Amino acid sequence: MMEHLNRLIDRTRSDCVLLSAEHMSSRFDLAAIYELAGHLSAHSVQVILYVRRQDEMALSALSTDLCCGSRDWIPIDRISPDVRRFNPLQVVEDWQAVFGRDAVTVRSYASACRSGLAADFLHCAGLEHVDLSEFESVGRINQRISLYEARILHGINQCLPTWREAVRTGTPDAYHEANQLRRSLLAWLRSDNAVSNEFALESALTSHERATLMQRFAHINNWLVDSYGLEAPDFDMRLNETSSSAVKALKPEEECMLMAQVLRVISQRLMQSESHGSISWGAVRKIGAWSKRLGAH
To answer: Which domain of life is it from (predicted)?
Structure first.
């Protein structure tokens, strides 16, 4: 892949090439970063890293993971500085070890979003002269789900195959079908306004849980603030938040109500389509199993 990238760079003969990949920073370990540097050794490299609060990262990860079939909720007890994904200081130090401190710029994601992420990125890259109006603007593709949507996905994921299970049984298509079901279900629920979006996913964490998470990383975040001039309020513990803003586990009757709405939407869509689209009766039966299990409780 990198050989192909270098050929493209040579072919375009551009003065500057931007590589944007959010998973590159946290999921590339030191060995992978060294390998990347080797592929880019013929070029001058400037690295721009945006760091986020750990509680916000946990919520973002929950949204992505549920949409990809995870059966877990937020693993509060497992989020610690030992988990590289949540430790921005370790990530920064690894990239600096490979490319050098002067080549790595560290920015606050929250601050950049307030001022305009694209403009902030171009400024850090020395490309302030670029006129963004010349480019076509697209809407956000990776949209965070609401709390109720998260609860629904968490429920149906218990009945659908994960990627690991599908690979182990030699049925990867079953996982892809489950993904299509999740996407279709969210689209149907939103178009029919079947589920209240009164509560954003942020309310999945209580103020106490947020403070607990941020306290674990306080020494790391303070170091980032002091060393890189990041805005301290972006990394405080938000102790002023009230626990009433969080909605924890749904009551059984509330979860049953959500499931009833899901089944109603699915049945309506199936009746509207002779081919039933890409949703199989097997998948519907699995969701029905969740409904029966709820009824048993």
So the answer is: Bacteria
Amino acid at 159: C
Residue-number span of the structural domain to which 287 is assigned: 145-199+250-297
For residues 40 and 174, the answer to whether their CB atoms sit within 8 Å is no
> What CATH number is associated with residue 111?
3.40.50.300
Residues 6+ apart with CB under 8 A from 111: 120, 230, 231, 234
Tell whether 119 and 163 lie within a shared domain.
Answer: no
Those residues whose C-beta lies under 8 Å from the C-beta of residue 281, and which sit 6 or more positions away, are: none
CA–CA distance, 177 with 171 (Å, rounded to integer): 10
Q: Quickly tell me which residue has 């218990």 as its tokens.
A: 158
- Given the DSSP bridges, would you call strands 104-108 and 47-51 parallel, antiparallel or unpaired? parallel
Nearest in space to 160 (alpha carbons), one of 269, 250, 288: 288
Do 94 and 72 belong to one domain?
A: yes
Rounded mean pLDDT, 75-95 = 93
B/e letters for 180-214, b = 16+ CB within 10 Å, e = fewer, are ebbebbbebbeeeebbeeebebbbbbbbebbbbbb
Number of other residues whose CB lies within 10 A of the CB of residue 55: 23
Residues of the chain with pLDDT > 90, as a percent, come to 32
Does residue 128 register a pLDDT over 90? no
Residues 96 and 190 in one domain: no
Mean pLDDT of the residues in the chain: 80
* pTM over cut 0.70: yes
